[in-house]
Amino acid sequence: MTTSRGGRPREFDRATALERALVLFWDRGYEATSIADLTAAMGVGPPSLYAAFGSKRALFDEVLEVYCEVYRAFMVRAFSEEPTFRRGLERLLREAAAAYTRPDRPPGCLAVSAAVNCGSPEVEQSLRALRTSGVDALERAIRAAIRASELPEDADARSLAVFTGVVLQGMAQQARDGASRRELESTAMIAFRAWPWPASRS
């Protein structure tokens, strides 16, 4: 942290500091990101980091909030802004391909990559809960689509939700391994066509 002319510490931009920490956690994972890495990227000393955020774990919790609000929000918008479930699902899958291959951010999904080799059971639980919440929300949307006759009455909502979660997590990992947006979109559309859409709505 820099100092002002009067010798007092100059306040750092919290939003900027959180974004820099987010990129580190996203790129390296929770366990491999050290306090030294964080202070260097955020432009603060260890005492200032602890004073502002409390701990590495507390900082990570704030980072997750920012990630959900900024980088994961497309998952909610896909269904809230489209008139049908079918169009919402297609948008979700296509936008996931774009989100996981953004040139200005690490590839993949923080909720997946931050869990790699994580030695903190609490952090693992937080990330697991985040991923599970997405599957649960999708299951609710699927059940609503079944009630609206957009999907067959005998469609297995839970299995379809889990299937989509597996596809999204697999796409995220493939992005980490270098898959392009076009490759992920192609995979996404194969998954989309595998759904039990009524023939009349094909």
TrEMBL record:
Location of the HTH tetR-type domain: 11-71
Residue ranges: DNA binding: 34-53
GO molecular function per UniProt: DNA binding
Keywords annotated in UniProt: DNA-binding, Transcription, Transcription regulation
PROSITE patterns for the chain: HTH_TETR_1, HTH_TETR_2
InterPro entries assigned: DNA-bd_HTH_TetR-type_CS (IPR023772), Homeodomain-like_sf (IPR009057), HTH_TetR (IPR001647), Tet_transcr_reg_TetR-rel_C_sf (IPR036271), TetR_C (IPR011075)
Name of the molecule in the record: TetR/AcrR family transcriptional regulator
Organism: Frankia nepalensis
Organism classification: Bacteria, Bacillati, Actinomycetota, Actinomycetes, Frankiales
